[in-house]
Amino acid sequence: MLPSLVVKTLRDYRRASIGWLLGISAFVAIYAGSWAQFDANPDAAATATDGIPQGVRDALGVQDFSTGANYLQGTIYSIFVPLLLIMAAAMFGARAIAGPEDARVLDLYLANPISRRQFVLQRFVALTGVLVVLGLVPWLLVSLFNASLDMGVPAANVAAASLGLLLIGVCFGTLALAVSSVVGRRSVVLATTGAIAAGTYVLRVVGDLVGGLGFLRWLSPFHYYLGGDPLREGFDVAYLIVLMLIPAAMLAFAVIQFERRDVST
Amino acid sequence: MTAVIEAEGLTKYYGPRRGLEDVDLSVAPGEVFGYLGPNGAGKTTTIRLLLDFIRPTRGRVSVLGENPRTGVAARRRIGYLPGELMFEGREKVRDLLTFFADARGGVPARRIQDLAERFELDLSRTIRSLSKGNKQKVGLVQAFMHEPELLILDEPTSGLDPLMQQEFLDMVRAARIAGQTVFMSSHVLAEVQQAADRVGIVRAGRLVAVEKVESLGKRAVRRVEVHFATPVVAADFVDLRGVSDVHVEGTVLRCTVDGQLDALVKALAQHTVVDLISAEPDLEETFLGYYYDNEESSRVA
């Protein structure tokens, strides 16, 4: 049986989870399902992204749509679905501590025999559980369309990119949890998490595009997600491990920090 | 027996702002302790220190023999009602109560049902659809349902109608008979008088007096206003036992009575009384009367 706070948290998150699930499913299905029109028309595929300035294309990791991998990368994996998943993760992460603290209901939860450490850990388990469900969507749908529309991407590569995507979500969900272990204000948590997500995305782009600043990309979790080019190269175990260590470190920070501080009223 | 709540020099500052200063407190097992004071005096700060929501700046506190910081398991034996009771989300009352029950190692469903019936609380409604009074009932049910050894209740009757206040006071009496310890804060003297054995009076962050409730009651200071048929003179009343602050304006007498009303009532009987208004003992005045009198007597001694 799951610990009581995990059960409650999953129940609290249910409504919003279903919303995100439907949204992400619709997005992935529409884009992945549209591959047929480019597959049938190589000229259109080669020029589909010409309207986007080269700099923007580089920044977003978008190439032409001449291969299935290029297409999936450009439409789904490079920016839009990570953005959706990070938004969902940040909102669920902010609801872990800052939400009830803002709503002045945290006292009522902490009056139970649940330690601060347990509180953070159980919230993390529930948060990760929801993100795993959301992260399964791109994997399942892309695998489905990849097979049925002959996109030609090895199944393992889809799995690798989808796992990285999930871990990016967990990274930023745990970041939101870590921020709310310091400041119990939902708005602050969302703003900080959003700023760090945008900042580290830019860091990777700058690191990739600007000569001499290549080292910057190592500071960005996005590098460990797409830097190994999973749709073409498959699993990069070292990178995926880094993507697991980042949330682990932030979780440890969140536990220590939340154990230390006063809960505000 | 060891104290259920024991504080020594308990002090809390919020940055430079004082929340509580040098509070020494001891609550014995089975005792109902009323923690009385005006809003902002430090009642909620004390309670939040007892439950480790906030950490003391100085001093020491133990609850059920444990440091609140480390004694997480002891919270199974505590029932807590927040002063400003809030809820979030769309969950049903039953779901929230089930969470509290599970978190505390299980409570029979029958027990939750009984308490809900007692308070006429509909468990199948969502909490957000409840009125303030009904939300307060949810708070009371979750505090009492696991039959904790110690109940920590912050302004428990706020938002309850008089009938439910009575129901609540019955529950406190039952808890006392069952040997449970109750620490309840209030700014309403009457409610504390009905339920408590001892009262601690907190003012501007300091615990200024701890008294048995009977001694406070006897000293209750009332404001009395009497309307007569014909004009009266102040001289008829100034020398009466317990009567002070005598003001007469034509046919109206206003005064303060400390303790028994007997002397005043007998004096009033000499005149034709049209109306008599006796306000509830004023909390602040009772406190202060007690506080300053004690200070004076200790100075004399």
From TrEMBL, chain A:
One Pfam short name: ABC2_membrane_2
Keyword hit for Ubl conjugation: no
Molecular function GO terms recorded: ABC-type transporter activity
Keyword Lyase (UniProt): no
Source species, domain of life: Bacteria
Cellular-component GO terms for this entry: plasma membrane
Membrane-crossing residue ranges in chain numbering: 18-38, 76-98, 119-141, 161-183, 195-217, 237-256
Keywords: Membrane, Transmembrane, Transmembrane helix
Protein name listed in UniProt: ABC transporter permease
Organism: Phytohabitans flavus
Source species taxonomy: Bacteria, Bacillati, Actinomycetota, Actinomycetes, Micromonosporales
TrEMBL record, chain B:
Top-level taxon of origin: Bacteria
Predominant subcellular localization, coarse grouping: membrane
Tagged with keyword Nucleotide-binding: yes
InterPro entries in alphabetical order: AAA+_ATPase, ABC_transporter-like_ATP-bd, ABC_transporter-like_CS, ABC_transporter_ATP-binding, P-loop_NTPase
Protein's membrane topology: Peripheral membrane protein
Location(s) in or outside the cell: Cell membrane
Short name of any one Pfam family annotated for the protein: ABC_tran
Example of a GO biological process term: response to antibiotic
PROSITE patterns xref list: ABC_TRANSPORTER_1, ABC_TRANSPORTER_2
GO molecular function: ATP binding; ATP hydrolysis activity
Gene Ontology cellular component annotations, sorted alphabetically: plasma membrane
Keywords assigned: Antibiotic resistance, ATP-binding, Nucleotide-binding, Transport
Keyword Manganese found: no
Domain ABC transporter: 5-229
Recorded family membership: Belongs to the ABC transporter superfamily.
Protein name as it appears in the record: ABC transporter
